[in-house]
Write a structure and sequence with these properties.
- The protein is of the alpha+beta class.
- The protein has an eight-stranded mixed β-sheet.
- A hairpin with a 4-residue loop joins strand 2 and strand 3.
- The mean pLDDT is 94.
């Protein structure tokens, strides 16, 4: 894993949270997008070399809706940048980690992503992400 790529924060209302983080970080969101396959709307902020992803559920079946119901707003995941997602998935499978959903898929911010089940990572949802080919 090369570096922390971003920290994902589940929020109830993206517009309200965008305003909060704009005040907090002193910069506007650089990108907002919807990932329909995940039932989520995202907004990204940069603070120096670091990125924050805000996640709002767009339907009741969204994993974010489930997270908000169980835990409320807060840190949802930590994402790590990897150079070769397929290779990293294979390495982690050999180490005994469960990959969600079992294969890479398209994510937000031009990334290909996969997740590690939080039951195997001390309760922290870990996202692996690789820049998608243009």
């Amino acid at each position: 894993m090369d570096k922390i790529e971003h920290i994902g924060i589940a929020v109830k209302d993206l517009a309200v949270s965008n305003a909060l983080f704009e005040k907090l970080l002193g910069v506007p969101s650089y990108k907002t997008e919807e990932v329909a396959s995940e039932g989520v709307r995202t907004s990204f902020f940069k603070s120096g070399p670091n990125k924050i992803e805000l996640l709002e559920a767009i339907n009741d079946e969204s994993p974010i809706a489930n997270f908000l119901d169980k835990k409320g707003e807060g840190v949802h995941h930590i994402a790590f940048a990897v150079g070769d997602l397929e290779k990293e998935i294979e390495r982690l499978k050999q180490e005994g980690f469960k990959i969600l959903p079992g294969f890479p898929k398209n994510g937000a911010d031009n990334k290909i992503v996969a997740f590690l089940h939080p039951k195997e990572t001390n309760g922290v949802l870990v996202e692996l992400c690789q820049e998608a080919s243009s």
